[in-house]
Write a structure and sequence with these properties.
binds iron/sulfur cluster
Amino acid sequence: MTIDLRLAFGWAITGVGAALVGWRIAFLLRLLANGRPAPGRMKNLGAQIKAELTDVFGQRKLLKRPGPGLAHFFTFWGFIALIFTIVEVYGDLFSQSFAIPLFGTSRALGFVEDFFAAAVLVAIIAFTAIRIYQNPARRSRKSRFYGSHTGAAWFTLFMIFLVIATLVLYRGAQIDTNDFPFGKTWITFFSRAVSLAMAGAGHQTNVDIATAFILAQIAVLWGFFVFVLHSKHLHIFISEPNVLFSRRPKALGPLHTTPDLDPEKMDEDTVFGTGLIGHLTWKQRLDLMSCTECGRCQDQCPAWATEKPLSPKLVIMDLRDHMFASAKDLLSGHAGDGPVASKPLVPDVIHDDVLWSCTTCGACVEQCPVDIEHLDHILDMRRYQVLMDARFPSEGGLMLRNIENQGDPWGLGSGQRLAWTEGLGFDVPVVDGTIPDDVEYLFWVGCAGALDERARRTTQAIARLLHQAGINFAVLGPKESCTGDPARRLGNEYLYQTQAQTNIETLQSAGVKKIIASCPHCFNSISREYPALGGNFEVYHHTQVLSRLLSSGSLRPQSPVDKKITYHDPCYLGRHNEVYDEPRDVLGHVPGVKVEEMHRCRSRGFCCGAGGARMWLEEKIGTRINVNRTDEALGTGADVISTACPYCLIMLDDATKSRQAEGSAREEVRVMDVAQVLEQSLSAAPGPSEGAAGEPSA
Ligand code: SF4
Ligand code: SF4
């Protein structure tokens, strides 16, 4: 074939491919630009660039699973390295002996190109093996690919194979025709091996083979490009900006604070949360386009693991499919009244049982390799249901009324807030006016810590430990009110903000600077979410303070606690706030304790089932999350299941007792906060039976 003909074919394929790609990119950009604003997405540029480098170029999250992670790593870097071969292919259309100027004949470049061609081929063999092993039809819900579009994934693997096959075939032929930029050398081992197989074909045949596969390579590349932009593999180009624009320092963080909840400022166009696909922000639309359907989120979801209908992957996929189906309405300005876009997201696209099954544990966001913020999608849909449609599980209504009227989810009222201080053996100062100068910390007790009999024992243990270490602290007593966290996680942003503003005002007028919180939900709200409403305090979780007191020698454990203990990471302490080490450090200081980790620990910890206001909702579908978690803890053979959250304590204790009643758990097993374990090893500590949560509740 003459050079002119090669050029004509090459540019014809390129012209058609570029037109199709350009049309699709323009469509996707219009769809994104049509989304609602997502303010503050570039306000932490340093952390955003760092995440781009570590998570996209370093593939940090994917490498947590070494098998598929390495395969993905080499595919990603392979496609970057093979950009050089694309330049060579186009150069070859003009001259059969083309080499990239300056470095195009260097052996290093030849090796890099061949190495990555071979690495990508090995990676697609690995992907094929993983997909066969994880065959959804065979493994059912247990496969992380359950519900994914596996047909498109197989086609993509085939296309990647074609990219590599056409590449090494034309390079092998070029070696035999002496047109290869790197000459006949084993440094380009892959191409050289292929050339040996083709050497007998003769010079002219190899010239024709090289031409045919160069054109085939161009056709495959453009075909792949067009296919990718029309499939879930869109993530190949979209995940990079999605990681860049995600919340930093990590995608799992404080919820967006809805502004202007003032009824005076509302009109008929005011919308809170997400009720229609048109209500999504551009970042949320970018999220939907980024999903790779890898199922890592589904694999870690406690709701999915206990047979609930919620899979975070399927939520994202269903919203994405609906977004593309609604594109015509969205782009023609009919987001609210078009035939498709006017469908209410709940229940038409996302079923009620899916929406209300979420515990907001954050495992999905933590796992997602492309930093999709599932929780924002779920919470925004809950906000719409609660604030716009008044549709939510009836049990949640009682909890909301209790917070509104009594300041706590149980409705016990402020009169009970100091009951835990009785019998402590010392006085706990209650702030009246401003906090005294000699009092360093305000101890934020939390509703469960003050009102639940089992959680009160932890509160008492913490108070005794602080007292013993000589820490001056005070409490708000009846002036303390629910942080609003359960209301916010249920979707009632209005009630959350009312509670938060009242608490901020109380704390500020008392002159509080430093806070110790024993409940991770309070800890998270006050430290991470109150700043958006003007509340800025120095907040510590009790395990952080205890760990410091132990390191400084202010607390000195003496008596051995000869127990095997397993530690359960509370989601809002661990995953949401990355406090993993301090609770373990406290246990590590206790002589005699043998710590046995559960398989699902730290960032892969499994929820207790209480978060996302699920504590107050009935669990009618599937098996119980707290029982699933407790079974894992019991499986370690531990004598004590320890934790650092009053809600986890209650949930795990309930499940332990039910297993003990069935006879499948040892009677001696106890559920305790790490503070209670520590207290046992200090002098004048209560005995195990007094300190454990496994005692009857009031
Ligand atoms: S936050 Fe937890 S429960 Fe909710 S979807 Fe994600 S993994 Fe599942
Ligand atoms: S949401 Fe993230 S983790 Fe889940 S399937 Fe999509 S890409 Fe994978």
